[in-house]
Recover the amino acids of this structure.
């Protein structure tokens, strides 16, 4: 069933500025129990930093997380985004086309208001699927 993104997205998103260190962003991810943070500058979306970005563009490249900035390793602009009034079908199509698992939700010319993930779509469109079950599981289980 197609739904509006505003009905399935996670509105509370963690965000950092591009000059934040990777180590600080990783600690924020741990504190918030999330796998990504939005990278914003002057309230506009600059990029997205995922745990995978930290590993592949930071640690694997031998960068020091205490001195490397988020802006140097995050998914750079342009970032694929959705609006809160877009549909879950549109989100799935964008995820498929761009091979991503999460999309920032923005309004008013780029102001981030949330994130929608592949797990959010699974829980909405097929609540009995394995992915939906995994997405609903408590962290660490």
């Amino acid at each position: 069933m197609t739904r509006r993104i505003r009905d399935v997205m996670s509105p509370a998103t963690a965000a950092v500025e591009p000059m934040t260190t990777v180590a600080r962003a990783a600690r924020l991810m741990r504190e918030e129990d999330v796998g990504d943070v939005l990278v914003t500058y002057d309230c506009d979306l600059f990029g997205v930093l995922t745990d995978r970005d930290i590993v592949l563009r930071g640690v694997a490249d031998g960068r020091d997380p205490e001195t490397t900035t988020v802006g140097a390793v995050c998914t750079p602009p342009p970032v694929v985004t959705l609006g809160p009034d877009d549909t879950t079908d549109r989100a799935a199509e964008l995820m498929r086309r761009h091979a991503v698992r999460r999309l920032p939700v923005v309004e008013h010319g780029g102001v981030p208001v949330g994130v929608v993930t592949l797990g959010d779509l699974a829980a909405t469109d097929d609540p009995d699927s394995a992915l939906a079950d995994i997405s609903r599981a408590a962290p660490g289980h």
Notes: Residues 131 and 137 are 10 Å apart (CA to CA). The two ends are 29 Å apart (CA to CA). The helical segments are 22-32, 51-59, 70-73, 88-98, 118-125, 130-136.
